[in-house]
Each structure stands twice: as structure tokens, then as C-alpha cells.
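Extended Data, record FMN dependent NADH:quinone oxidoreductase
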Amino acid sequence: MQILQIISSAQGAKSYSTQLSQGIIDKLLAAHPGSQVVVRNLAANPLPYLEEAHLQAYFTPAESRSAEQQAAVHHSDEAIAQVQGADVLVIGVPFYNFTVPASLKSWLDHLTRANLTFRYTPTGPEGLITGKKVYLAIASGGIYSAGPMQANDFAAPYLRWMLGFLGMTDVTVARAEGVKLPELQAQAVQKGIDSVTV
Ligand SMILES: Cc1cc2nc3c(=O)[nH]c(=O)nc-3n(C[C@H](O)[C@H](O)[C@H](O)COP(=O)(O)O)c2cc1C
């Protein structure tokens, strides 16, 4: 089994979302010995924000692209190939300002290509990245899975929708939450790991 780990925390080894991701990956490796893990660190190696050059390249047929347009589309082609090559994605999500980090949003922007990763049909949009299992490992300072702040979680609903739009509909959400709350911090990661059955 091929596992793609996406890191988007800027906090290195201290990152709760990365620790939670690692716990999920350890479970996957125990259940599927011999699996391979590819790590993509978006915080250390961010993709550029979409600019005019990217968009022009996307909408130019591959055989007609200039050298600059081929270079512009490279990030996207490479990110898509990496996802298509995986059976399972484990996406680490630090909860920043009520949603996902910009680096993760940028990765999704580069994955989203008409007629390559989604298409419009007479019955509506169809995602073309299918057959994947996705685990979201979300770390947040507060509590968003229930209670008064649940309505302000613009990370999990956004990711579920966006990944589903691309065809990745089998999504499990695991949370290390309340990491800024002294009474919850110590157990937050383990609780998230324990919530996942692989
Ligand atoms: C820039 C920034 C924004 C944050 N915004 C929120 C927030 O809106 N809500 C919240 O509960 N925690 C927030 N936090 C706390 C993080 O969610 C928490 O530190 C989490 O552990 C980050 O994930 P990481 O440990 O993988 O980096 C924020 C932290 C940072 C650095």
C-alpha cells in the first residue's frame, strides 16, 4: 500500500497534527506491513500561490504550451501524480484562524484542474481522483468537534467538500483538539489516534 503523508504545520517536530498523522500512519503500517510512505512537507516546500502564468498554462492544450507554461504547470502535474500514486492520504491540518493553512489551500488549488481531476457532466461535477482513503489529522487549540465553536470550523467541512469534489469521498476526520487547554493538552494526540480504526 502507498501512503502519502501531507505535512502543513510550520511547527516541525512539535506539531500536534504531525504527531497525530504519525500515529495514524503507525496504525496503517501495523495493519498493512510493507506499505510505503511518501512525505510531502508543504510548510518546508510550499507550492506557489496560483498566478496568471499557472492559469494561462492550465487553459492551454499541453501540446501548445510554451517552455514557461510547461514550467508553470509542473507543480500541479507533479502534485496530481503524487496523489494519484497513493492508495491512502494522511493529511496533517493545523487549525489556523478557523481554517486550513495557506500552504494546504495552495496544494489543493494546484490539484484542482478541469478535465484532469474533475469535470463537469450534464448531471453535475464529477471528481476524477477516485479509490483513495483519506485521513485528516486536525490539531486545534480549542474544541471544534462539538459545542459552541463547532459552527466556526471552516477546516473539516471545507476539506470534506473539496476532497469530495475531486473524487476523494472516503474521508475520516481525527482530531487532536484543545491543545491550548491545559486540562486537555496532554491527552489530545492520543485521543485522536484512538478515535481512528484502520
Ligand atoms: C497562526 C495560528 C493560528 C491559529 N488559529 C487558531 C484558531 O483559529 N483556533 C484554534 O482553536 N487554534 C488556533 N491556533 C492554535 C493551533 O490550532 C494549534 O497550535 C495547533 O496545534 C496547530 O497545529 P500544529 O501543532 O500541527 O502546528 C492557531 C495557531 C497558529 C500558529
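Summary. The helical segments are 16-31, 52-58, 67-84, 102-111, 156-165, 182-194.
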